Amino acid sequence: MHDLVIRGATVVDGTGAPPVRADVGVRDGRIAEVREGIEARSDTPVIDAGGLALAPGFIDVHTHYDAQVTWDATLSPSSTLGVTSVVMGNCGFGIAPCQPPVNDILMKNLSVVEGMNLDALRAGIRWEFQTFAEYQNFLRRKRPYLNVATLVGHSAVRSAVMGDAGSEVKVPSVEQLAQMRELVRDALRNGAIGFSSSWSPNHSGYNGVPMPSTIAGDGEVRSLVGVLGEEKRGVFQMASGSREVAFFESLAAAIARPVFMTTNYLLHNESVPGRAVATLDACLAAQSRGRSVYGHVTCQPLSMDFSPEDAFPLFSSPAFMRVRNAAPGGKAAVYASREFREEWRANLRVTGIAGIFTGNWARMMVSRPALARNSALENRSIAHIAGERGRDPLDVFCNLAVEEDLKTVFVIHAFNVNEEGVAPILKHEACVIALSDAGAHQSFLCDAGYAPYFLGRWVRERGDFGLAEGVRRLTSHQADLYGIPDRGRIVPGAFADLVLFDPATIAISECVRRHDLPGGQWRTIREPRGIEGTWVNGVRIQDARISEGEGIVPMHGGPGMVLDRFN
Description:
Elements: E1 4-11, E2 20-27, E3 30-35, E4 46-48, E5 53-56, E6 58-60, E7 83-88, H1 100-113, H2 118-124, H3 132-142, E8 147-153, H4 154-162, H5 174-189, E9 194-198, H6 218-231, E10 235-239, H7 245-255, E11 259-262, H8 275-288, E12 293-297, E13 302-306, H9 321-324, H10 331-336, H11 338-348, E14 364-368, E15 380-381, H12 382-389, H13 393-403, E16 409-415, H14 419-426, E17 431-433, H15 450-461, H16 467-472, H17 476-482, E18 498-501, E19 507-508, E20 512-514, E21 523-525, E22 528-529, E23 531-536, E24 539-543
Parallel strand pairs: 1-4, 1-5, 6-7, 7-8, 8-9, 9-10, 10-11, 11-12, 12-17
Antiparallel strand pairs: 1-2, 2-3, 5-18, 13-16, 14-15, 14-16, 18-23, 19-22, 20-21, 23-24
Helix pairs in contact: 4-5, 5-6, 12-13
């Protein structure tokens, strides 16, 4: 008999097939039956799902929970937002392999490149591992609420072998490269879902040092990625910066493994509106030649909060090396200098820079002025303020930064703002809906709710996707591309990863601040709308009837698995 019956749901099975009204029976953590009229014993929990949709749990392939999972088994807020499986370690930024002498380097770099609070990292991370295999075993002991798969990261591997020199020395020695290759090989043999790296100009570490992978040459990347081909397992993900698709096609051809690009070039940019589709077209052409190259794309407008003290969204402009390299207390003088301003203006005239901010001052808003006398500037664009004052907007920005001692909070509406431009990107065959960055950038944004946002905005409100195709793009599409077996579908034999929701109301809240990080530090989260329940391996982890914690079910250890075997 069944351990759970969900009765009368509109089952959207993740395959793209039309939704059907049916009961779903769960036994031993897997789907046992999908049909009408499933019988249940008197002691079997039965969920009345009439009027609601039942889908496979969402699979988030671009997260950064590597650190947070060591203190938070729930992987909040993803566990509240219908996600049941995550892939961690994207862009090369993991915490294993590691060694005590470099642990603080990893934390300091993560605090900048992924916008994580350094005090929270130092207070929260439990360093009960050094090798990748030990990290996997730690996760098994931790018993996370969600299923977790981990990429082994290039920057972590470089730091483990080279220490501080990983951010300073472009070409490793022959011995160091051999050591890095063996660390990647060891991780793959111990269940890594693949390897990740970054060449993004936006990825800088503590005190402006480059993240280790960003200074690596083509030969080093090819050598490390080559281990995937030798082992005949794993995927490769890279924050690719401005590199062309042809390079990644050559990698895919060499290793016969899937390659996933993450770049601003795959987001809609009003200054170069055709670039994202052209990049995806190049990926599709590579696929036609038998090379599996895809792009991670967010379905949400990409906005970022920042202060001039930590202006990471602007770091792709070379002028900001002056800010990043300034001595403590010297950044304000840089913003005030004529030389810096003229160099930044020149940077903004170069459209080829793969930056988050490309000079549209109407998209940069004053979110929270630091001084009471400037309160009237709140929620106004720099372009509007500059027009009102008859000044150049770049000077207005820099002057305000200096006046408020670099404490002004700005927000950039950076990419994917024009939905008519975004729609053909999301519909593209080479697009993988991802890029939530869940677990990262907690001071600036929270895109962990990408799946309910997609179903609310792009399926229900705009109608660009039907419900069946919308669910497929969030579930089996990811599972198949990443080789995650028996997930992403509601079919007999699959794991019972399920989300029950109301198609008429599913959505996410505005950003909400919570002081719940280690050491009492704060973060930004999203809360669910219209999600009634979530099950991982047949165990309910979220219940909308629970008022606290956005419905998280309290338990001693979660039902999630460490995913370590892939198709």
